[in-house]
Structures are given as structure tokens and as C-alpha cells.
Write a structure and sequence with these properties.
Elements lengths: L1 H11 L8 E2 L3 H5 L3 E2 L12 H5 L1 H17 L5 E4 L2 H13 L4 E4 L11 H8 L2 E4 L14 E4 L3 H5 L6 H12 L6 E6 L4 H21 L3 E7 L2 H13 L5 E5 L2 H7 L2 E5 L2 H8 L4 E5 L3 H7 L10 H6 L6 E3 L5 H17 L1 H14 L3 H16 L2
Parallel strand pairs: 1-2, 3-4, 4-5, 5-6, 7-8, 7-10, 8-9, 10-11, 11-12
Helix pairs in contact: 1-17, 4-5, 8-11, 9-10, 9-15
Length: about 375
């Protein structure tokens, strides 16, 4: 997103001179970003690691504020990394430096009061989903729906039917088998809560489908080892794992069993039927029951504001329920043209040339704010 915004600012406004300063990945560096810190140093996950690295994060926050003020930047754009960037934006905002943020946090799902805190931190907010700007109405912030960059790029150069065969060949999956992509999550805690249920669901599926295969994408070798060990402990055959993008498994499969998250959006964009499930610790789930505001949690359902894909949470996410739903979705995908139309509607809703829109809005913002 950061690189897309940089690229489109230069493309759309070639007569303007842009200098980019901050922290970013290889693409942003390749576009001329002057880096103040290595992006790898900000790869912090979970709850424990940010606490352990809090002294470093505080030093980095102070350093960035000092650098931005010394260099007299015209504006700041935070890209994701919400907690840190909103803290930084709030400090800069208090010092009359215009601020923007790319990707609204999930205020639609819970903690709606957080929208007020965001409005106190940043002037301009780019939202990926059409239902998000409404949560900022009446607040001192510009919130714009620009579309989802993933919807603009994921299908680029793909032939979904031809690439299905290529993906199966790459993953060494049987050509004529029914393939199920299992997506239990990328964090150890998610896998702890989800994988066992997914494997039991797969066992039931195998009883009704003699030619069926299962594939699990892993974000790292560490996660792959965790999943392989749990598969071996369950004494379940027919599950293959690999380290790489989930997109390959989604291209190869016939149906998806996934935890909630962005990957369900990927599945919808690649037009694969799916069942979405999520489990949490008992205490966490108990507390969230009083905080969650949204009727749905699967992104395709949130986008369409109706239940297109089955979703199951906590005690309802049983192997029996998930197995029955997967079998129904396979048949429904084959027999019901409305299902495919619904997936296409998700794509059409989110495919808006997000980075192009964001660059245009940000340029107008700069012209109005920077003197």
C-alpha cells in the first residue's frame, strides 16, 4: 500500500516534487524512500513481544518525531502498524503537522469508541471497506472508502482455470482429486485453537469423499513444523503443507475451510466457495461477547451485508457443522449461479483502484493543508 501510494503520487502528479522519508519495505526503498530504520526491526507479533520491546519502540518514536520535525516534513502517512503509527500521528498532529493513515482499524467489529481516538490522531483516513466511513461521521476526520488494494492486484495475470492445474502441479496435489484448502491461521495461538477442529472436519470429509486431498499454506518453517507435528499426532494422512503464499492453495483448491481474516477476502476474489470458522479462549470469547457489534465476522459477508458464506464461531464451530457446511457449499457452488454472482459482487465492490484513489485524495489534502 505504501509503495502503491508513492508510485501513484508520482505518476498522477509528475510536475510535483515528492521526497519520501520514513520506514518501509523493499518496494518503498526501490521507489526512493529514505529509510530511517530497517523494516525488519518492526516485525513484532503477539502481545508479549511488544511489551518486551517497549523501550526500543519508545526510543524509535522519539527519534522519528525529532527527525520529521528537523526535516520539516509537509505531511505524514502511517501505513497500517496501527498502534505505533497512531501514537506517532497523534504527536505530529499536536504539533500542527498534517497526518493521514492508510487502513482503518476494525472499528466496525468492536471498540467503536476507538473511532474517536483515531479522529484525535489523524486528519485523513483511507478505508478499505465501504461500510467503514460511517463510523467516523460527525468526527473531526476525513474518512474515505478507496477500495482494497488486494482486489486490484490478486487477479492480475491469472487464468483461474489454467492456474488451478498449475497450482496443483506445483503443490504435487492429485489432478482429479477434490482439494480442500485448510487455513487455520498464521499465529501459533490461532493454530492451537483452530487446527484440531479443522483436522477432525477433514477426517469426516474423507469418509464421504474417497478422492479428497488437503493442503495447508504456512507463513514460516516454524509454523509448518507446528502444523506437521499436530497432523502427525492426530494420525491423519492426506494433509500436505508448504511455506508460501495462501494464494497458491486457494488457486489449487475446490473449497476452503478458513479462519476469519483477510484470507477469506482472497478466497472470494479467486472465487472459491468457503466456510469460515473462528475459536478463541473461553475468557477472551466471554469478554468479546459484550464488545462485538457486527452481525457478521467473515469479510465477504461484511462487504455484502448478508450471509453469502457460512460462518461458525466458538461452540458452533464443530467438525460436524463444518463438514456438513463444506459439502453443502461444494454442491451450492456447482448448482447455484447466485453464489458466483455474490463472489463477483464482493470483487466489484472492492476493486476501485485503491492506490490511485488514495493518491488523488492525498494530493488534494496536501494542496489544502500545506502552504
Amino acid at each position: 500500500m505504501g509503495s502503491g501510494l508513492m508510485e501513484n503520487l508520482r505518476t498522477q502528479y509528475p510536475d510535483a516534487e515528492f521526497t519520501f522519508l520514513g520506514i518501509g519495505g523493499p518496494k518503498m526503498l526501490g521507489l526512493g524512500l529514505e529509510s530511517l530504520e530497517k523494516m525488519d526491526n518492526l516485525s513484532i507479533n503477539g502481545f508479549r513481544e511488544p511489551i518486551l520491546r517497549l523501550p526500543y519502540l519508545i526510543r524509535l518514536l522519539r527519534f522519528l518525531v525529532e527527525q520529521f520535525q528537523a526535516r520539516k516534513i509537509d505531511a505524514f502517512v502511517g501505513v497500517d502498524f496501527n498502534v505505533f503509527n497512531f501514537l506517532l500521528e497523534r504527536i505530529l498532529h499536536s504539533r500542527n503537522i498534517p497526518t493521514a493513515h492508510y487502513v482503518s482499524p476494525s472499528v466496525y467489529a468492536w471498540r467503536e469508541g476507538r473511532a474517536k481516538k483515531i479522529a484525535r490522531s489523524t486528519d485523513l483516513l483511507f478505508c478499505l471497506f465501504p461500510f467503514e466511513p460511517q463510523f467516523y461521521q460527525g468526527l473531526d476526520i476525513e474518512a474515505h472508502f478507496v477500495g482494497h488494494p488486494l482486489a486490484d492486484t490478486i487477479l492480475s495475470g491469472l487464468n483461474l482455470n489454467g492456474d488451478k492445474e498449475a497450482a496443483r502441479s506445483h503443490l504435487r496435489l492429485p489432478k482429479n482429486s477434490t482439494v480442500v484448502a485448510l487455513l487455520p491461521g498464521s499465529r501459533k495461538s490461532e493454530i492451537h485453537y483452530m487446527l484440531g477442529t479443522f483436522l477432525e472436519t477433514s477426517r469426516r470429509l474423507k469418509e464421504s469423499h474417497k478422492t479428497i486431498s488437503f493442503v495447508v499454506p504456512c507463513v514460516s518453517e516454524e509454523i509448518q513444523k507446528q502444523i506437521d507435528n499436530q497432523v502427525a499426532s492426530a494420525n491423519f494422512m492426506g494433509v500436505s503443507t508448504y511455506v508460501g503464499e495462501a494464494k497458491v492453495a486457494l488457486l489449487a483448491c475446490d473449497v476452503v475451510l478458513s479462519k476469519s481474516g483477510t484470507v477469506t477476502l482472497e478466497a472470494a476474489l479467486i472465487k472459491r466457495p468457503m466456510v469460515v470458522a473462528y475459536k478463541l479462549g473461553r475468557l477472551t470469547h466471554f469478554l468479546l461477547r459484550f464488545l462485538v457489534k457486527s452481525r457478521y465476522f467473515a469479510l465477504p459477508n461484511l462487504v455484502l451485508e448478508r450471509e453469502l458464506v457460512p460462518e461458525f464461531i466458538q461452540k458452533d464451530a464443530t467438525p460436524d457443522n463444518l463438514c456438513a457446511a463444506l459439502l453443502r457449499e461444494l454442491k451450492r457452488f456447482e448448482d447455484d449461479p447466485g453464489y458466483l454472482e455474490g463472489l463477483e459482487m464482493v470483487c466489484d465492490t472492492l476493486r476501485k483502484n485503491a492506490n490511485v484513489q488514495a493518491a488523488k485524495i492525498f494530493h488534494e489534502f496536501l494542496v489544502a493543508r500545506v502552504k
